[in-house]
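Input record, target 12 of the design panel.
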């Protein structure tokens, strides 16, 4: 489903969380690093988004999918994000969210106006390569068709980011429901999707896991979620 609205909302959030990197370091004083603080600055942040997208496009990443499966590839995206941000978990989650968006532009349902806003600075060729390489079958119940659950990655990472940054499950829930309702009403090809809400729930669980243990992996949250069902 169409989930590009998340990018706009998270970028707005980013403008108000310049202290996130410092908070991240204070939560984990043993990993405090001024290098991780630098990842909060816009030039470094934007560069890291570009580098993570580029990593996903590479054959190296595609080999991880082929050899180890899509679940391992999801872990690889987050691990690379941690490397790029020098272990800054909050911003690793944020750049993982922005690097897994699956639409090139955002189209609004507005009467008498065809409004389409590009939301990627990639060329269309680069975008398509990244989209093709995104993991698609990393959930036990992922649809069998090729596209699978590519659009669920942004939900998992985005919801984990909200939990990690603000430590509020109610905020995560309210944001998820708001996005679904807004998309259903205002976004072309958008609809209220229960599977999106489930992906958000997995992301919230991942965020809480990271608050307790920053070595946690997305795959652990996914596996735990389906074990408990």
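The sequence produced for target 12 reads:
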């Amino acid at each position: 489903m169409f989930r590009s609205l998340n990018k706009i909302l998270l970028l707005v959030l980013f403008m108000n969380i310049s202290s996130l990197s410092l908070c991240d370091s204070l939560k984990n004083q043993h990993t405090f690093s001024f290098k991780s603080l630098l990842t909060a600055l816009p030039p470094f942040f934007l560069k890291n988004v570009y580098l993570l997208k580029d990593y996903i496009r590479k054959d190296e990443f595609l080999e991880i999918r082929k050899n180890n499966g899509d679940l391992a590839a999801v872990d690889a995206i987050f691990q690379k994000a941690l490397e790029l941000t020098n272990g800054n978990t909050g911003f690793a989650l944020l750049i993982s969210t922005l690097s897994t968006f699956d639409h090139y532009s955002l189209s609004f349902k507005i009467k008498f106006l065809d409004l389409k806003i590009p939301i990627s600075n990639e060329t269309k060729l680069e975008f398509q390569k990244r989209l093709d390489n995104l993991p698609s079958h990393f959930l036990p119940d992922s649809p069998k068709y090729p596209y699978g659950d590519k659009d669920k990655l942004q939900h998992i990472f985005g919801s984990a980011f909200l939990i990690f940054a603000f430590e509020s499950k109610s905020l995560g829930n309210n944001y998820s429901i708001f996005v679904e309702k807004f998309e259903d009403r205002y976004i072309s090809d958008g609809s209220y999707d229960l599977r999106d809400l489930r992906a958000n729930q997995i992301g919230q669980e991942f965020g809480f896991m990271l608050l307790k243990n920053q070595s946690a992996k997305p795959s652990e949250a996914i596996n735990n979620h389906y074990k408990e069902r």
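Residues 1-32 have pLDDT under 50 and may be disordered.
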